[in-house]
Write a structure and sequence with these properties.
This protein is α/β, with parallel strands linked by helices and 359 residues long. It is 44% helix and 15% strand. The protein contains eleven helices and nine strands. The strands form two sheets. Strands 2-1-3-4-9 form a five-stranded parallel β-sheet, sandwiched between helices.
Length: 359
């Protein structure tokens, strides 16, 4: 096979880069038909109302705690840089300044977004595209939404390149290994601090129950990730629990909530380690929600101890896992789960490998 310049597109949520951009970021988020499943006009008014109300709160609270801007872009770009370097050091890579591979970060709700990254990949001279979300677990609200925007941007640019898409990788060996490493560091520290009864809370971003009932595999995939991590930790009689954070609105959400899990741990007189296994880099939901807000709740509840394991970030094992995914897709076209086979049970109609469901 003749070597081709391959653009690897890393999808992520995005975040405001200043106090002034909190409102338009939130508007873009709530305008997404995958988030609010209502007709366009009604969705517009709801998105406008929520973004105005929440931007005032977010500026003073969540984003206010971290300088009124999200570090998500810089952290994702660090991952892109590490992946680019690793791919170009492999046998498939070409010697030279830029090499055969280049990873680009494409955000969904704030810059740089799909139109800009399609243009950047074209100007770089991409001959092939591999789409790789920085979400290990597939959801219609994250990966599918990003893929839809990417394909629209490609159409607008009149760009037609061979494309392979990695829909999900909840059991990726590099991701699991890096996760285990970070959790184990916290577990050892908690033991050194004298805690004997330790519970690990695996906290993922929540999702409305109706999305799961509609066939979204996100919760199932999160639970598979946790089982694989627990297995790899290999700690006898390990106490652990799944939970979900970041609830908004009045709908019923999957549970238990992280708040409920913390309250139960306090009642059971446990120290807790929280690990955000559905996030792969630090941002507002880890740096503020977990490190500040839930820590304060844990203290108010009288928890024996509160620890938070770091996300995988640029851990070499995680980057190796991403590089392995890219390597498996160099001669592929289409949308696949890791291993090029369906991971989800058949009742999840929005599995990424269901025809026409992934994009």
């Amino acid at each position: 096979m003749v070597p081709e310049k391959t653009a690897v597109i890393l999808f992520n949520l995005g975040g405001p880069d200043s106090r002034e951009t909190i409102r338009p970021f939130l508007f873009n988020f709530f305008m997404d038909k995958n988030i609010i499943r209502l007709p366009l006009l009604l969705r517009f008014f709801i998105a406008k109302l929520i973004s105005i109300r929440r931007s005032k709160k977010e500026a003073g609270a969540s984003y206010g705690e971290i300088g009124n801007r999200s570090p998500l872009l810089e952290n994702s770009q660090a991952q892109a840089k590490a992946l680019t370097e690793m791919l170009n050091q492999r046998p498939e890579g070409l010697e030279g300044k830029e090499g055969l591979f280049k990873a680009f970060v494409c955000m969904r709700y704030w810059h740089p977004m799909a139109d800009q990254i399609v243009k950047a990949a074209k100007e770089w001279g991409a001959q092939r595209v591999i789409l790789l979300p920085l979400y290990p677990q597939y959801s219609t609200t994250t990966t599918r939404s990003s893929l839809q925007q990417w394909h629209l941007a490609m159409q607008r640019a009149g760009l037609d390149l061979p494309t392979s898409t990695i829909g999900c990788y909840p059991l990726n060996a590099g991701f699991i290994k890096a996760s285990v490493k970070n959790i184990r560091q916290c577990y050892d520290r908690a033991q050194k601090d004298g805690h004997k009864d330790i519970r690990i809370l695996f906290s993922a971003h929540g999702l409305p129950e109706k999305f799961v009932k509609d066939g979204d595999p996100y919760q199932w995939q999160c639970e598979q990730t946790v089982r694989e991590i627990v297995k790899a930790l290999n700690i006898e009689n390990l106490d652990w629990q799944n939970c979900y954070q970041s609830r908004v609105g009045r709908m019923e959400w999957i549970g238990p909530s992280t708040e409920e899990a913390l309250a139960q741990a306090a009642q059971d007189k446990k120290a807790v380690i929280i690990y955000p296994h559905a996030f792969t880099q630090e941002h507002v939901e880890t740096l503020v929600e977990l490190d500040i807000e839930y820590r304060e709740k844990a203290h108010a509840l009288g928890l024996e101890g509160y620890y938070r394991a770091q996300t995988v970030g640029t851990d070499p094992d995680f980057i190796t896992g991403l590089a392995d995914l890219v390597g498996a897709h160099l001669d592929k076209e289409g949308l696949f789960a890791e291993g090029l086979t369906r991971l989800c049970p058949p009742d999840f109609q929005h599995c990424c490998m269901n025809k026409n469901k992934g994009s």
